[in-house]
Automatic annotation (TrEMBL):
InterPro entries: ProX/PRXD1, YbaK/aa-tRNA-synt-asso_dom_sf, YbaK/aa-tRNA-synth-assoc-dom
Transmembrane segments: none
Organism of origin: Ruminococcus intestinalis
UniProt cross-references to CDD domains, sorted A to Z: PrdX_deacylase (cd04335)
Signal peptide from the UniProt entry: none
Similarity comment: Belongs to the PRORSD1 family.
UniProt protein name: Prolyl-tRNA synthetase associated domain-containing protein
Start and end residues of each YbaK/aminoacyl-tRNA synthetase-associated domain: 37-161
Amino acid sequence: MELYKGRPQNIEGRLDREVRVYDLLDSLGIEYLRTDHGHADTMEACNEIDKVLDVLICKNLFLCNRQKTKFYLLMMPGDKPFKTKELSSQINSARLSFASAEAMEEYLDILPGSVSVMGLMNDKENAVTLLVDEDVLKGEYVGCHPCVNTSSLKIKTTDVFDKFLKAVGHTATVVHLTGE
């Protein structure tokens, strides 16, 4: 795997959802490093990418309440275990579960295995609440997919949370997860 600065030179064969991420980041003046790779839809595969990007790839979980009326995108360190009960109590939402692939595509225009904060650019109605574990904010950089799991980006944390989220009309709710 090689590390590149910015968007691919040739976008032929790239999915529209990926190209739209590069277009938005470029229009906002957000610099990023990128690597292309095989499908990375597990944290084990992401660990190899972490080494190339020299950043911890976030675990991104797309969740919903029991009634499927509230949707959440949770960003947390990839090496931290997720405990539903721990998060439920902080957001006052009992019985959290993983949202369906259909809801993921409807709200974020992302397929399973590609969940990323970048998908919030497609949530024009603000139907998805972004939840961020406080440890993610401690890092200088965030690693994420550009809405596909065959590329990964390294972006300054401040650019994601100050510039990107503001541009796409979202805010982050910070949560404290111990994984215990």
